[in-house]
Design brief:
369 residues; seven-stranded mixed sheet; 20% strand; FAD/NAD(P)-binding domain; 2 domains
Length: 369
């Protein structure tokens, strides 16, 4: 490892969390590099379904130092967000390396060892900014479906042209499930299975949102935090269950003629999906909107708490000096997982890294700093 490339800090992931962290590290003069597995900054957004729009208006979708360049009460799409992140890197000249897949994270002495697809790097600090959920979840019985049924997970779905003629079952009725089901209803007969876990009681793109939005933003940043009883309850719900419907509601599904089934899809009978109430649906397509799970298998360090999530305090991993997370679901507050809310956590982590860096500098370097 003596010849390995060394940086004071390595940031893993060049999404909104990693770039916000990079902005604050750069302002503090910390030596760092950001590693991104995709070939282009913003591809994590470009690879989502075509009709995707953010659930927050543009005024709440900017990162530190650069507002989203759209009218305040418009709703960015996936390409708007992707291009914004790319422009953010260019504006602040952030040191991002694309096409670098991180395969492992370990520790040797005081240094962290970051193994990538083609090299090994070392660092005094590592920030994991890969998001909270990375690996698509598909039920184990999915491979028992008739091979003639087209199956896609929501991370593979782009638009209705990927599906064949015939009915569609959308499994899961949280945000993406409801959005995709409504889109597919324009060209297919659609069924949706799975419980609805509440819904926001107003149109998020209405004028009413302009009154309610600032209140919700305040709550997401200052009330629903790990310091409050209400915030801790919300964190458990966010991490353990699907969220409420936001843009598309049950009334929209009904109006589009979508067949909603509250029972979950639990198995396969004669090659067709079976619901928990025993009903079997004769469909030609299945879209699994069954979410994602976190993946920390590449981290060879004890980081998980009793709830299975990284045990951290405002991003600093307990028992692992110099290891941080940014962008976890409800890392500190509800806003931690929102584009416009991640900057506060990034600033907190960068401040701690800068303090560690200054404390570890030799006296001659500290005097010159």
């Amino acid at each position: 490892m003596t010849n390995a490339e060394h940086h004071d800090t390595i940031v893993i992931g060049a999404g909104q969390a990693g770039l916000a962290t990079g902005y604050h590290l750069a302002r503090r003069g910390v030596d760092f590099v950001i590693l991104e597995s995709h070939d282009r900054v913003g591809d994590v957004w470009r690879n989502r379904f075509d009709s995707l729009k953010l659930y927050s208006p543009a005024q709440y979708d900017g990162l530190p130092g650069m507002p989203m360049p759209m009218p305040r009460w418009t709703w960015p799409g996936k390409h708007d967000m992707a291009d914004y992140l790319e422009a953010y890197v260019a504006k602040f000249e952030l040191p991002v390396r694309t096409g670098v897949q991180v395969d492992g994270l370990a520790k040797a002495g005081d240094d962290y060892i970051v193994s990538t697809s083609d090299t090994v790097l070392t660092a005094s600090n590592v920030v994991i900014a890969t998001g909270g959920w990375q690996t698509p979840i598909v039920p184990s019985f999915a491979d028992q479906l008739d091979p003639e049924i087209v199956q896609l997970h929501s991370h593979e779905y782009r638009n209705p042209t990927q599906l064949q003629p015939g009915p569609v079952l959308v499994v899961g009725c949280a945000h993406s499930g409801a959005d995709i089901a409504l889109e597919l209803a324009e060209t297919h007969d659609v069924f949706v299975s799975g419980p609805i876990r509440g819904e926001i009681p107003f149109d998020i793109e209405s004028k009413r949102m302009r009154v309610i939005g600032p209140v919700l933003w305040f709550l997401a940043n200052h009330v629903l935090t790990e310091r409050t009883k209400r915030g801790r309850a919300a964190r458990a719900h966010v991490r353990g269950a699907g969220g409420p419907l936001l843009r598309v509601k049950r009334a929209h599904l009904d109006a589009a003629g979508i067949g909603y089934h509250e029972p979950k899809t639990v198995g396969v009978v004669d090659g067709r999906p079976e619901l928990a109430d025993g009903e079997v649906l004769d469909v030609a397509n299945v879209v699994w909107c069954t979410g994602f799970r976190k993946d920390t298998s590449w981290i060879s360090l004890p980081i998980e708490g009793e709830d299975g999530w990284p045990e951290q305090r405002r991003g600093a991993v307990v028992g692992q000096e110099g290891l941080f997370f940014v962008g976890l679901p409800f890392q500190y507050a509800f806003a931690s997982m929102l584009v416009g809310g991640v900057g506060r956590d990034a600033q907190y982590v960068a401040r701690h890294i800068a303090a560690r860096t200054s404390a570890s500098l030799p006296e001659r370097e500290l005097a010159a700093a």
